Automatic annotation (TrEMBL):
InterPro entries: TfoX_N (IPR007076)
Residue ranges constituting the TfoX N-terminal domain according to the UniProt record: 19-104
Species of origin: Actinoplanes xinjiangensis
Top-level taxon of origin: Bacteria
Pfam annotation, one family: TfoX_N
Protein name, entry field: TfoX-like protein
């Protein structure tokens, strides 16, 4: 099933001032900034997977259309991974609020690949 192109275009517009790499991931289209996922437009266009700070996770889950993201049958992706129903993104303000939350977490430098350690030689 293809991702929702309208939602993908909205994400592209919101990230227009950044270098973005688009990757097919989680059954949809993920938007990577600095090699870290910011959001993912899900297949079927039913929702947007948003990565937010685990510290503000509970606050975001109280918003309309928000739910804990799951991978597979009822397996939670954990704090900071939120699925937002497309119907909760109709208003530009709501969409912008979710993008702001994702970019705010991204700016913290969290949620990326662990840093690789360089091996030092002992003489």
């Amino acid at each position: 099933m293809a991702f929702d192109s309208e939602t993908a275009e909205r994400v592209r517009a919101a990230l227009a001032d950044r270098q973005v790499r688009e990757v097919k991931m989680f059954g949809g289209l993920a938007f990577m900034v600095d090699e870290r996922m910011v959001v993912c437009v899900s297949a079927g266009g039913s929702d947007l997977l948003v990565r937010v700070s685990p510290d503000s996770d509970a606050q975001h889950l109280e918003k309309s259309g928000a739910a804990r993201a799951e991978m597979g049958k009822g397996r939670s992706m954990g704090e900071g991974w939120i699925t937002v129903d497309k119907t909760a993104l109709v208003e530009e303000k709501d969409f912008t609020d979710w993008m702001t939350a994702a970019l705010s977490f991204h700016a913290q430098g969290s949620g990326g690949k662990p840093a690789t350690r360089s091996k030092t030689e002992t003489k």
